[in-house]
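Build the 3D complex.
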Amino acid sequence: MLVLERVKEKLANKAFDWYEHTPRRVYFKMDPKDIKHVANALFKDLGFRFIIATGCDTPEGIEILYHFGYDKAGLIVSGRTLLKDKKKPEIDSIAPLFVGAEWIEREMWELLGINFIGHPNLKHLLLIDEWPKGDYPLRHDLKEGSK
Amino acid sequence: MSKKVIIPIGPYHPLQEEPEFFRLFVEGEKVVDIDIVLGYMHRGIEELAEHKHYDQVAFLVERICGICSNSHPFAYVNAVENIGKMEVPERALYIRTIIAELERLHSHLLWLGLAGHFIGYNTVWMWSWRYREPVLDCFEMITGNRQHYGMMKIGGVRRDIKDEDVPVLKKTLDELVPALDMFKGAVMDDPVIQARLKGVGVLTRKQAIEWCAVGPTARASGVDIDIRRDDPYGAYDKVDWNVIVEKDGDIFSKTVVRILEMYESVGIIRQCLDRMPKGEIDANVKDIPPGEGIGRVEAPRGECFHYVKSDGTNRPLRHKIRAPSYMNVATNKVAAVGQTISDTTITLAAVDPCYCCTERVMVVDKKTNGKIMDGLDLVRLSQEKTEKIKKALKQ
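Done.
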């Protein structure tokens, strides 16, 4: 697929471990510090649409998958990054690059406790403002009886 | 001298299945800013899904939304089938498509009625909902339910469409087309509606891209995206149809997109009924292998996205859900600002967030904290503006 070759070329030294699950579902890994560069290249330079980001609590750390879609080819490219420090997970915010990422970063902040550095308006989105600090509903290790 | 006034809209209303709270900041007649507060219906479904087995999750996500109750399970089964790259029997693909398009018909008719009510066209409201009933009857005939059809299943569908149901479906569609012609004429040729909706609540193409808008909201702004064509699922790549795109990004364009899309839906269902092969409707999937999958569906409101991560057990490890309104509601921040108060109800409703909580609206004077208007007043304001345009056009 032509567009995928362009993505691989553009992200040559930032993205690694490419995995093509099906021709339209492609995953790669990246370093947390490169997120702004990757998001900028995909959204601004290559014309991808930001679909959403998935935050996930794993034994190794907090994982974030950034899903970008290229609608002309029906392609979804998902960039995977791992925040190893579970006590204080931090990553640069991509909301200043495009406003469509603002809500999901607020959501991941309150549900998983990820701090998005440089987010313009980091406050509660789904939970009430009085939600107890340090209680993150999607974290697995903080609850009794969870898997 | 203008004084700044705050208007809270929402969060609850019986017609709205996802409560939202809009706080409008108003100077005189003009909306200068808007604050959107979500979370009143946050039920933690992503977390719940991690504690249910794969078959149960289909029923769980069906309950995310009452209007597009088929879109979420459809996207979910697409995601799970993507994990194991599973093949689904062709007849099941056609049945899924028919259900999805029937749903688009009833959802767009519902929106058209509400939009008509907001601008004072109560006849459009009544007629639109009158023609929505036969579509719901079709659902009841095929699935047993008017809403929450329970049709989607990993590897297929739960119920077949019986041969004797096909003529009834076709007859309903034949009777719906003249009604669609009527709505098309009533909206597109009416000078009052044109004057009322053109240039109102504009979302430009650039804004639609930056806010990552999807579905009819994006297509009305000239962004040519439709998951049914771009990333085909179900039987959409086996039938002929067109993606409707308009350029202006105003409420008139959003209305036109939805009305014309209904014709395409009718065409898709007719082709599916004719081309649907006989055979199995279920692949009898037993185990979900470890891995991750992404499923997408073009819901009536836009792209519905599900991501499922499996570790090989009978429960998902992580299930991420993104409904289309999550992206579209945020665009109100640009579409509603700069409008007059009388245009806000229809602007907020134009992205079709299943939203019509305007009866909860209150206009509050910031200085005295006294209530100036409530929701009924705001709908009345909107309807009065239409009346004024009507009178002006008569003279």
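Chain A has a mean pLDDT of 90.
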